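Batch 3, record 17
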Amino acid sequence: MARDLPAIAASLDRYLTERWNRPVRAVDLVETSVGARRGNILFDAVDGERRHELVLTIYPPAGTVIFGVEAETEALRLAEAAGAPVAHVFEVCTDGGWFGEPFFISSRIPGDSLPRNILRRVAQDPTLGARVGSQLGTAFAAIHAVDGADAPADLRRWPLDASPSAASLDLLEEQLDEMLQPAPGLALGLRWLRDNQPDPPGRQRLVHGDVRNGNILVDGTGLTAILDWEGCHTGDPHEDLGWLCVRTWRFGGDALEVGGFSAREPMIEAYQAAGAHFDPHAYDWWKVFGTLRWGLGLAKQARQHLDGTYRYIAMAGSGRRVCELEYDLLRMLSKLL
Amino acid sequence: MQDRPTAAEVLVTIGEYLDEEVLPAVEGALRYKTLVAANLIKVLERELAAGDGPQRRERERLAALLGVAADGEDLTGDLLRLNAELQARLRAPELPSREFLLAARAALEASALDNLAVNKPGYDRYDQAIEVD
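Prediction for the assembled complex:
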């Protein structure tokens, strides 16, 4: 259901006028991803002679989020301070009186986020894909430079001295238990992951958790921002590298591991050049993990459709995509077993 | 005998209607959902054409792998039972032999390929040479 944009504009006028202590008007509101539980509304704030290009992010109802708006925006600030391309946070508010739920207001960054638009840009500019791959490596190095101990406590999914791989596997085991039918192909992946865990990172780091083609902004110059920090946590940095390179996020550009637009090498070279540590086994392990994670995620979508939690035809379709992830997993295991 | 059109003919008819009349007329979220629906119709067409051959082959592979007999009337029940048995063995605390893991992987890949032939034909064309070292 679309949101009531005129009412949101009126609330923004009052909020920004009060906060900035001068008359401000919110205009040209556009809701992206209409119907999503998390609201993202683009708008311009008219501030005297100036116009600020901004984004209002309204949180989903409490109980459906892992942590609050303060933790997420603090992670954004840490990532920005470390040099990662992210939106700048201007306002954070936990008061549900304005828009029903807590929200934050951040800078609006130019670029495309739709994967097919990004792949179209890359097809038109032969240097763009590898450049974005390299920029992602540099951005990851910045994010992963943030020590887990400095991240907000709410972002710790497990104790800082725990093994991220073991703790992450426990979460997948639970999801496998919840499946509507046995899935031995996914169970085999879990078995391999359990028996071949990488050495834990020396220290846990800030991990975004969902960087993929679809959660990045790209324009003609290259990568402009990394979006959607709602799943960030402390953990093993290789989780981010492996997840980005899961085949699903290539949208048909299979031979280019990074989002279908770049080979792995430009990303890893930039990552290491920026001082980050890369372990090939940990990379393979987290890529297998990411493939299994998304296979279970698709099965969960189908389950939520079938049990009536969230009746939506695209989530029914997700159930028939589990075999894609299972197949990718089994092909990787043909080399790894 | 059911009257014509057959189930396969009904699916083709719905698919044509979605492709030729509905899709050109819708946009945004509705277009996306219609694309999903049109794709699912084609999945069902292929599933119907494949018959129960894939399930029978899956049952044979799993029974051979697990060393049990399974050849009754209840194909779906057998498949649920055999897949649950294999999953339990793969999740047991004791490490299965490498030979068993390799045989299980090969059997599961064969079934995944049969599922892909229905759900996403051509997905297996990519050779995956670069994926892991």
